[in-house]
Write a structure and sequence with these properties.
The complex is a heterodimer of chains A (166) and B (184). Chain A is mostly helical. Chain A has helices spanning 7-11, 13-17, 23-34, 37-52, 60-65, 75-81, 83-106, 109-126, 130-142; strands at 154-156, 162-164. A two-stranded antiparallel sheet of chain A has the order 1-2. Chain A is elongated, with a radius of gyration of 46 Å. The termini of chain B are far apart. Classes of the chains: A mainly alpha (166), B mainly alpha (184).
Chain lengths: 166, 184
């Protein structure tokens, strides 16, 4: 079964078989079908599909009996549904979220360490006596700065053992 | 180009909704009578089995409970199809999760028909039904809504949550597949 090249007419076939075309369009499609074997075949197929659709019975009266009477929403619900209320809620949410983010940023981990560091240092030095501090300062003054971090060259000697030197 | 009866049908739905909201319970009955059969057909074509009556009822109960959210941008029937489709998907998912249930493939939401139905249906009808059943779930939804219910691509797109363009492609792919299978 091939397709009719007139897409406009083909597109209206489902509406035709469901009686959903205005009178003018219906006359137009029917005139086309009269001279188009492909569209006649497709309309036939659509009618077959429509006719073959299962049609289970439903008890409309029973269904309708289960529908509760309409209850008008309360004023609070109506206000909450209105767009100014939703816009206000969105603004409040944004302001709140922004405040929380700023607070978190102000009390971030780096700041905590920076604030805690002097306390740790003071705490550590507080346990050392003044005499010990002086001794430590003297000892620090005697230390020579290391000028190079390159490893020493090791020259193997003939007589055995290794001697370090530069 | 479409039938003015369709918009007058939509207008009637709006009048009935307004009447129901004003306290006329008979308006709800008329709305159910106007759309229940289409919902049942769609459910059966999409794989619902024994509980179609219950599914249609749940659709209406849910729809009436949330009618204040119906803005009338689409037709009332299109809106009902959307609700029913979501309920049907939830049920099929629940069936899949049940260990004792048979495994469902994507296109196994296909309608199966009981023996009596099969005996009563003609060979042509059975052949057509089987061809429609072979479509993928999405193709079948689109095809059924277009052919059986006469929905526009815009209405179908709203119902199945896709674009008009995608709905059009699904429909034409489905049509080609059905034609091919019937020619076999």
């Amino acid at each position: 079964m091939s397709d009719c090249p007139n897409v406009t007419m083909r597109e209206m076939l489902p509406e035709l078989v469901n009686d959903r075309l205005a009178a003018g369009a219906r006359a137009q499609v029917e005139a086309h079908i009269a001279s188009c074997a492909e569209c006649r075949a497709e309309r036939e197929l659509l009618l077959q599909v429509k006719g073959a659709a299962p049609a289970p019975r439903v008890d409309a009266a029973r269904i309708a009996a289960n529908i509760a009477a309409y209850r008008r929403p309360s004023v609070l619900v109506l206000v909450a549904r209105s767009w100014p209320a939703r816009a206000a809620a969105a603004v409040l949410l944004l302001v709140g979220a922004n405040t929380v983010i700023k607070q978190n940023a102000a009390s971030g981990p780096d700041t905590i360490v920076a604030m805690a560091a002097p306390e740790v240092a003071v705490g550590a030095l507080a346990d050392i006596s003044e005499a010990d501090l002086r001794a430590l300062a003297t000892e620090l003054g005697t230390l020579r700065a290391v000028t190079s971090v390159e490893p020493e060259v090791v020259v193997p000697s003939v007589g055995g053992g290794a001697r370090g030197g530069k | 180009m479409t039938d003015p009866d369709r918009s007058s049908g939509d207008q009637r739905d709006r009048e009935l909704i307004a009447a129901w909201k004003a306290g006329d319970q008979r308006a709800a009955t008329e709305l159910v009578e106007r759309h229940a059969s289409a919902l049942a057909r769609f459910a059966a074509s999409c794989g619902a089995r024994d509980d179609i009556d219950e599914l249609v009822q749940d659709t209406f109960v849910k729809a009436f409970a949330s009618l204040d959210g119906f803005r009338g941008e689409s037709g009332f029937r299109t809106w009902l199809f959307t609700i029913e489709r979501r309920l049907l998907i939830d049920r099929l998912r629940a069936e899949r999760r049940r260990p004792q249930s048979t495994e469902l493939k994507e296109d196994a939401a296909a309608t199966t028909f009981d023996a009596l139905d099969g005996m009563m249906a003609s060979e042509t009808v059975m052949k057509v039904r089987k061809a429609v059943d072979r479509l993928t779930a999405t193709q079948r939804e689109v095809f059924v809504l277009r052919v059986t219910e006469g929905l526009s691509y815009k209405e179908i797109a709203e119902t199945v949550g896709t674009t008009e363009g995608a709905a059009r492609v699904h429909y034409h792919n489905a049509m080609h597949a059905v034609k091919e299978w019937l020619d076999e």
